[in-house]
Structures are given as structure tokens and as C-alpha cells.
Amino acid sequence: MTSPEARERAVLEAVGERRERVNRAIPEELPIVRPERLYEASRYLLDAGGKRLRPTVLLTTGEALADVSPLSTPYRRFPGLDGRTIDLMAAAVSVEVIQSFTLIHDDIMDDDDLRRGVPAVHREYDVETAILAGDTLYSKAFEIMLETGAPPDRAVEALEVLATTCTRICEGQSLDVSFEARGEVTTEEYLEMIEQKTAVLYAASASLPAILMGADDETIEALSGYGLDVGRAFQIQDDVLDLTVPSEKLGKQRGSDLVEEKQTLITVHARQHGVDIEGLVDTEDVDRVTEGEIDDAVAELESAGSIEYANGMARTLADRGKDRLEVLPDNEARGLLEDLADYLIERGY
Amino acid sequence: MTSPEARERAVLEAVGERRERVNRAIPEELPIVRPERLYEASRYLLDAGGKRLRPTVLLTTGEALADVSPLSTPYRRFPGLDGRTIDLMAAAVSVEVIQSFTLIHDDIMDDDDLRRGVPAVHREYDVETAILAGDTLYSKAFEIMLETGAPPDRAVEALEVLATTCTRICEGQSLDVSFEARGEVTTEEYLEMIEQKTAVLYAASASLPAILMGADDETIEALSGYGLDVGRAFQIQDDVLDLTVPSEKLGKQRGSDLVEEKQTLITVHARQHGVDIEGLVDTEDVDRVTEGEIDDAVAELESAGSIEYANGMARTLADRGKDRLEVLPDNEARGLLEDLADYLIERGY
Questions:
Q1: Nearest-by-Cβ selection for B163 from A108, A129, A146
Q2: Closest partner residue to B174 among A132, A162, A173, by Cβ?
Q3: A108 and chain B in contact, CB less than 8 A
Q4: Which fold has domain B4-346?
Q5: Each residue's pLDDT tens digit, B312-334
Q6: Which ipTM was obtained for this model?
Q7: Does Transferase count among this protein's keywords (chains A, B) (predicted)?
Q8: pLDDT tens-digit series, residues B118-144
């Protein structure tokens, strides 16, 4: 059995190699054209970095389906299951562009100052430009997804997945906002919310290569399920990391979810176990909270068993996600998708 | 020759009959589902009214192409040129949904209080909800456009038109915002800006039925040109009406473009003819401007010949748009599209 450390190294290497290719493809798909300020703002967050986890899921799923060795086959001319060539990289960039659009608009809605260690787009530019940059990325993602060269019936199905995914992300974000104004939220409600807000884009990332390459419905369904499971596991781990990773490493204030009274699986569990969540941190301003306050809050959540509970749920979901991969040929790329599921819940940031 | 009054009556009747059908279709395509607040906010502006000019262009172009009498054929089961049935109403609603999304986000960017005589969505709800309502309409428009039942190759082309149209609208809005910060803007720059901000959605409305119904490229191109011409004529007339129609009738403060220092063909012309545009209205707050100030400003623009110049340009564009319709069979629906071009520049509001 691989140790978590060895697995993390292998996953980070695999992610890193794909990230470089994705980073090269982004300016090709989204060049800075007139009006330059709009496109610079649209590219700002994409250029600021990011792990490119969703494109990595997409590209690796394609490799597993095509049964080719990882990184052996050009993503721009990738073999479909019927021998037709498709541009898998265009689909990968499209998904990352959607992710970037949602982050830009989310940061406006949450009035967050920092993202990926740099100012949020509405801080670096202004709210107007940030709204418009997000809107531009939105339609560009559709344009880019139309450039895969897949046959029209599969292109239509891919576009349908992309559109319904975006709708569900909006629904999830709306639930997330409405939960902030509510006290009690059930575990089921929370899991539904993160499925829509976060996991559907992982589901799209895992199922789109199957759709574009011409896989059968059972395979598409199973891969979508993998994405839903690991996507939720990822979000739960993200909520844990918000509490446990130092601000410098996180690229934003540690504990900001608590300060902003966001519902997470941790707070949902803690409230059910008698913790006074609203009383954990006094201020509602991330600029005024102290590290000591966050330390005390985390200690209380730990003693209620809430962080352990969240870790356990993430583990269950990741394991279920891995099981769904049995629909794929048993190859190196599939192994990487399994490792990726583990990495998403074991990662330190 | 028809008198402008008779033509206006005929157009308003035709628009009204289609509007009722579009109004019935909107809740079918965009039902209020969970999370209800999000969908209520998404529907708020659509339900507040609107002339449905773009859906009318789309549905009437379909009738002209199919060579059927206006309103004789169900839009939900509309005959394509190859005899296949398509849902033309879905395409019409999709275009109106895009229009509504852009208005919601534009009102946030311009911080406008009123739209269609009711509070803007970000005033009735809040900025967060308005951003998200617009984002939801965005993807819903793509979902709805995928429900026309057109063969996949045509559906892909329609989606391409929709996506590139949205991108160009964003580019146009960005140019519009950047023009506000600039003094001199040339006539060509202004016309390019309104082509992107406004006319491309008319071009999509006129060309989408041709694409979905299976017309040839020449027809698609000519209809797109009709939309670009009448769309620009419409925007120029809109800028004229902002100065000349009483606030109550306009549903917002008359002269608000002047107060907000928006560039219009009128101000571009007036500046070129020595008018001190920045000095026309003292305040930059629409709530503080007086009717007398607007009256004086309009008088100065009139004596510079700027309003007449804008009217002449709108007339030229509308006439050129009508000429492009020669690609269509000579029938009642085509006559209506010609009348519509005239109406767009003759309308009183």
C-alpha cells in the first residue's frame, strides 16, 4: 500500500505536469484582445495560479478511457473511442474558465479581498469590471467547449452538461448565501448545497471526456458519480483547511468562513452537538479577527468532534468515488484518479 | 404608402399578439423552482414587462422564412425548411432571457434604480442576488436554446451564435463603460460599441430561426445583417428617446444618459460641433437633476443639429436593414419585419 506521502508526491507531480499544459493552453483559448482591459481582468485570476484540479480530472479521465499512458498522447488531438480525434484540452480549459468565472462573482458577493494570494478581481479592478469579466468568461467557456471537434450530437450533450452545471452552481451558491442567514441547517441540506455549489463541476470534469469521446451512458453516469463524490469530499476538506492552515499558506485569512458565518459540515455538526457557533468569533470582519480567537474556536470545534466528523465524511465520499471508477479499464490513469480522490482529502492546503 | 400612425398600429398589434404568447412561454421555460428566491429574482424583470421586440423579430423571421401567414402556425411545433418540426418559441424565450440577464447586470454596473417602471433587481433584492439571478438566466438561456429539437448540427451552430453574441455584448458593455471616462469618441467607435452592446442580439434574433430551420448561409448572413442594422437604429432611437420622452412614460429619469455622461451618437456629434457636453448638466446624480436643466440641455443639442443627425443615421440604418430582407419570400411576415424596422425609429417610447 502506498503511503500518503508517496501518493501526495505522485499526485502533485501528475497535477503539475498537466497544470503546465493547461497554463499554456489558457492564453491560446483566451487571448487578450480588444477591449484589452476586459480581457486582462478576465485572465487576471486564471493567470494568478490555481492547482487546475478540475482540468486534471478531465484530462486524466480521458487518458483512462482511451487506455493510453498518462501524458503519452497530445490532448489537442486526442483519440475518441471511435478513433475520431477530439481536442480534450479545449474541454479542460472550458471547465477551468467556468471555475474562474464563479470565483470572480463569488468574491464580489462575499466581498472577499484576497484570492490565490492576490487581490480579488473586484479589488484589483472594480465591481463593474469584475461582473463583466465573469460574464465574459461565462460565454467564452461555451465558445471554447464548442471547439473540441466532437461530432455535433456529442457536442450538444457536452453543452447541455455545461449549461445545467452552471445553473446548478448558481443554485448552490444561492443556497449557501441563504444558509448564512439561517441558524440550523441539516447535514442533508449542507451536502445538497455543496453538491450543487462545488461537486457538479467535478462531475462535469469527469463525465465530459466520456461524452466527447463517445463512451456509453453507464460509463458517463459512473464518472459523473465519481465527480460528485470527490467534489463533495474536496469541499468538506476545503472547509477543514480554512480552519487549520495558516493564513499565509491559505492565501487568505484563516477561519474566514467562521467570521463570515458560513455554514460548513463542521459548524452543522458542532451546532447539533451544542456548540454556540455564533459566539465562537465576536467580529464579522475578517480584517479584525485575531489568530488567538481562531485558535480558541478551532479548539472548541475539535473537542466537539466536529473536525473529526468532517474528515470521516470526506473519507467515506472519497472511497465511494474511487469505487465508481471500476467502470474504467484498469490502467495507470485510473490509478491516478484513485490517488487524486485520496489526495483531495489528505492534502495540507 | 402606409402612414407612420397606421404602421405603428399594425406593428404594435403584431408585437402585442406575439408578446402574449412569449409571456405565456416564459414561466413554462423558467418555472419558479427551488431555491425559490433565486428564481423569483431571475423572473422579476421578465415579469415586469417589456415589449419583447427581440422575440418578435425572431418569431416573425421564422414565419417569413417558412412562408406561412403570421400567427397561423404554432411556434412550439414550427415547420423547418426541410419539414422537420422545431420549437421556435424556445429560441425566442432564450433570446429574451439573455436580454434580461444583461439588463440585470447592467443596472448593477450603472447603479440604476429603476427599470421598466419598477425597482432594478439589485434594489428590489440585493446586489448578491442580482448577480446570481443574472448568472442563472445566462445558463438557462443556453439550456432553453438546446430544447428547440433542431438537428444537432444546427443546434451547435445556434449555440455558437448565442455564445459569441453574449461575448460581444460584454465587449460592447465594456467599451460603453470605458467611453464614459473618455472625452472624445469618434462616430465609428460609437457605432462599433452599439453594434456589440445592442445590435448583435437583434442579429441573433433574426438569424437564429434561419439556422434552426435549415436555411442557406446567404439567408443567415442577410438576416444577421438586418438585425445589426435595425439593432443599431433601435439603440440610436433609444438614446434620442432618453432625452425627449417624459420620465413617467420612460419608466426612469429623462436625460439620465446625459447626467451619467454616457456617450451617445447625439453627444458625439454635439461635441464635434463645439457643444460643451460636460457643462450641459451640473449634477452627476439622477436624483438631483431638474426637468429645467434637461430642457435647456436638449435645446442646446437641438440647435447643434445633433438630435436631427441621430434621427437621420437611424433612418439610414433602418432603410439598409429593410433592403437586406430581399432574401426572404415576399410575404406578410416580411412586410411586418420591414414595418418593424420603421417602427423602431419612429416609436415614441
A1: A146
A2: A132
A3: yes
A4: Farnesyl Diphosphate Synthase (1.10.600)
A5: 999 999 999 999 999 999 999 99
A6: 0.93
A7: yes
A8: 889 999 999 999 999 999 999 999 999
